[in-house]
Design brief:
Order of helices and strands: HHHHHHHHHH
Helix content: over 70%
Number of strands: 0
Strand content: under 5%
Structural class: mainly alpha
Number of domains: 1
Shape: elongated
Length: 243
């Protein structure tokens, strides 16, 4: 880390490097903390993330019943996803202040794209799903209309879920962690465990992409997603503790 800090200091001697380092650590912590609060709210209200597999007949009435908690929880999840963008940019500034590393630049692009794509999968729970839920529980709705709503729910959930979770979380988020881990190894960073765990977490995050080809990996998406957040939190704490 001393080599990184000295390089950043030589780039701009008038600007203390501790500021972007601490700010980067704080942004990484905020990404994780906002997700954990979201997890606590949604798991209590709708048994999330297990409820992602609930049929429309179960999930839509539950959304109406827990509307306030669902909107608040998914708003925090949306915030956590968007915060990935400044986190990736700030980490690039810490690791490669002169922007000479092609590897870190590519990783940063993947991080930014993850922060753009992931919210598209989340926003369905803030806009489309509450509307479908109200229509589903409407006393005037007949069986035919409820079947149509169920079909729309399933289609939207499948498409947006693949967009946000498989593309945003698994592919883009996984590639970001993987390339950052490789970059840390190349820089001989003095926290080697973060480099190796970043590589492992990145590879694990890529595994759920197999679901696109009909391969059921069970809870791998949930486990790899949790590992990704733990790695980000560990990285953030490390940066915050730098003097």
């Amino acid at each position: 880390m001393s080599a990184i800090l000295s390089s950043a200091t030589s780039t701009n001697s008038s600007q203390p490097v501790a500021a972007p380092t601490r700010l980067t650590g704080l942004s990484m912590a905020l990404v994780v903390v906002s997700f954990l609060v979201c997890l606590g709210i949604l798991s209590s209200a709708i048994n999330w993330p297990v409820s992602l597999d609930y049929p429309a007949s179960t999930m839509l009435p539950l959304l109406v019943e827990q509307r306030g908690a669902v909107l608040f929880g998914y708003s925090l999840y949306f915030l956590s996803a968007v915060l990935i963008i400044p986190m990736a940019l700030l980490l690039q500034r810490v690791l490669d202040p002169q922007r000479q590393s092609v590897l870190i630049s590519i990783a940063t692009v993947f991080g930014i794209l993850a922060g753009v794509v992931k919210p598209f999968g989340i926003i369905r729970w803030l806009v489309a799903m509450p509307t479908l839920a109200q229509a589903y529980v409407d006393p005037n709705a007949n069986e035919a209309s409820r079947q149509t709503i169920s079909l729309i729910f399933t289609t939207l959930n499948t498409y947006a879920g693949a967009l946000g979770e498989l593309l945003g979380v698994a592919l883009l988020g996984g590639l970001w962690a993987l390339l950052i881990g490789v970059a840390l190894l190349k820089q001989k960073w003095d926290r080697g465990i973060l480099a190796w765990t970043g590589i492992l977490v990145g590879l694990a995050a890529l595994l759920p992409i197999a679901e696109i080809y009909g391969i059921n990996l069970g809870p791998i998406l949930t486990i790899s997603n949790a590992a990704w957040y733990l790695w980000v939190l560990g990285f953030g704490i490390t940066l915050l503790r730098q003097r």
